[in-house]
Design goal:
By secondary structure, this protein is an alpha/beta fold. 36% of the residues lie in helices and 20% in strands. The protein contains six helices and seven strands, in the order E-H-E-H-E-H-E-E-H-E-H-E-H. Strands 3-2-1-6-4-7-5 form a seven-stranded parallel beta sheet, sandwiched between helices. Strand 1, helix 1 (23-36) and strand 2 form a beta-alpha-beta unit. Helix 1 (23-36) runs parallel beside helix 2 and helix 1 (23-36) runs parallel beside helix 6 (154-168). The chain is globular and about 50 Å long.
């Protein structure tokens, strides 16, 4: 059986996240983000990444299951391990954000994102992005953001970013 579903949101949401050491946590993020609504997930290979390889087939099964369970007709695009430096230099049609824990001027995502905008959010590994990675992202047009006062685990930060953008679009 097939059926058509109109678009559930009018923006493109892409989260690029460094996979966690414990793959169960990354799988949890992928499942929950799919239930909320996400267009693309990229697994980033960063300087401080604990995990250098993933099994895309397993994550794909989780995405399909979550898509069916939440009655979404669109399967998020999944990009396997991608080098941070090459990823941040790719073009993106929309706002580009980097969430990191370093000191400096950062605006809350909920205060800087405007509803309807396409968004790409970078979430670092356990241990955060390196200072060089943060600087490179800023040079490539990424805006530094905060997700709040709490220091969040990688998968939680990624889900908070996904949910915040959806809430602001409602």
């Amino acid at each position: 059986e097939s059926w058509q579903q109109s678009a559930l949101w009018n923006f493109h949401l892409h989260i690029a996240v460094a996979p966690t050491k414990n793959m169960d946590r990354m799988e949890w993020f992928a499942e929950k983000a799919t239930e909320i609504g996400i267009d693309a997930i990229t697994c980033l290979n960063c300087r401080f990444s604990e995990r250098r390889e993933i099994k895309p087939a397993r994550l794909e099964k989780i995405l399909v299951s979550a898509m069916k369970q939440s009655q979404k007709a669109t399967l998020p695009q999944l990009e396997g391990m991608t080098d941070f430096k090459s990823f941040v230099s790719q073009p993106f049609d929309g706002r580009k954000f980097i969430a990191h824990c370093e000191d400096g001027d950062k605006t809350l995502l909920k205060q800087t994102y405007r509803p309807g905008e396409n968004a790409l959010v970078l979430i670092g590994p356990e241990g955060d992005f390196s200072p060089e990675e943060i600087e490179l992202a800023l040079q490539q047009g990424f805006e530094p953001i905060s997700l709040g006062d709490s220091r969040l685990r990688t998968e939680t930060a990624a889900l908070v970013a996904c949910h915040t953008i959806h809430v602001l679009n409602q």
